[in-house]
Write a structure and sequence with these properties.
Blueprint (H helix, E strand, L loop, with lengths): L2 H10 L19 E4 L7 E3 L2 E3 L1 H13 L9 E2 L2 H10 L3 E7 L8 E17 L17 E4 L3 H8 L7 E4 L2 H10 L4 E5 H10 L7 E17 L4 H16 L2 H8 L5
């Protein structure tokens, strides 16, 4: 079985156990690379994988000589991709927010893109949130195992106020219909998702920022340092020659 057919099977049969690549221990060409629907960073459109992080990863792997293209990247629900990368050698996941709580769980390549994680609500609710404690009465939608959920937990928001789903499309529907008071997610992705849902984006606002950081490629913590260094060097070259900045500019994203 080729790597491409294996990854295609992963995307189509995500509930089935995966076969690990034996080459991943010594060769980055054997990495199983995964992503999720997270526009504008990574998303599928008309069956093609697109996005700022996709462009960065494809160019980075090309410079590292791994043979990966975007056709070799599996698109999985976030919780599945996250747990595979957490538990199984030979796996890598993007776009992953690098946080203090995650620091030692993975090895990292990047940073790719700046990111803001915050809570979005309808302006008509007139929610006046000044502190984390002000969040406690709210019903807050999150994606399971996403940084938006992890940050709420880390800041002591009661678990019973956090409603986890597997996809953010569910969160958008719940926010629009009023079944949650706010959603905790990356704010740029939230704006894209609301616009895609057909609602006026100007009717929504970020009511509280949880964290500012950057998105990375996360690799299983046993990934050999030589592989991480090879990929990081390829990314650093992209930054140095301006390729990284040009990719971000195409999507209207500043450093």
């Amino acid at each position: 079985m080729t790597r491409r057919s294996l990854l295609a099977g992963m995307a189509a049969l995500s509930s089935m156990p995966l076969v690990l690549s034996s080459r991943a221990d010594a060769d980055p060409a054997g990495l199983n690379v995964m992503t999720e629907e997270y526009p504008p960073f990574n998303f599928t459109q008309a069956g093609e994988l697109k996005g700022v992080s996709v462009d960065i990863v494809e160019e980075m792997f090309a410079r590292a000589g791994t043979g990966h293209t975007r056709a070799d990247i599996a698109v999985l629900p976030w919780a599945r991709g996250y747990n595979l990368t957490l538990q199984r050698p030979g796996h890598a996941l993007f776009s992953t927010t690098r946080t203090a709580d995650r620091e030692t769980l993975f090895k990292w390549v990047g940073p790719f893109v700046p990111t803001v994680v915050g809570l979005t609500a309808k302006k008509s609710r007139e929610l006046n949130i000044k502190t984390v404690q002000d969040l406690h009465p709210l019903r807050i939608g999150v994606v399971k195992d996403d940084v938006g959920q992890l940050l709420l937990r880390a800041r002591g928001v009661p678990e019973e106020r956090i409603e986890a789903v597997l996809s953010n499309d569910q969160n958008f529907r719940k926010l629009i219909s009023g079944r949650v008071d706010a959603i905790s997610y990356e704010t740029t992705v939230t704006r894209w998702g609301l616009e895609d849902s057909g609602v006026p984006v100007e009717d929504y606002e970020t009511i509280f920022e949880l964290d500012r950081g950057h998105l990375y490629l996360a690799l299983h913590h046993e990934t050999p340092d030589a592989i991480v260094s090879q990929l990081q060097s390829a990314f650093d070259d992209m930054v140095s020659d301006g390729t990284h900045g040009r990719i971000l500019a195409q999507y209207g994203i500043g450093l």
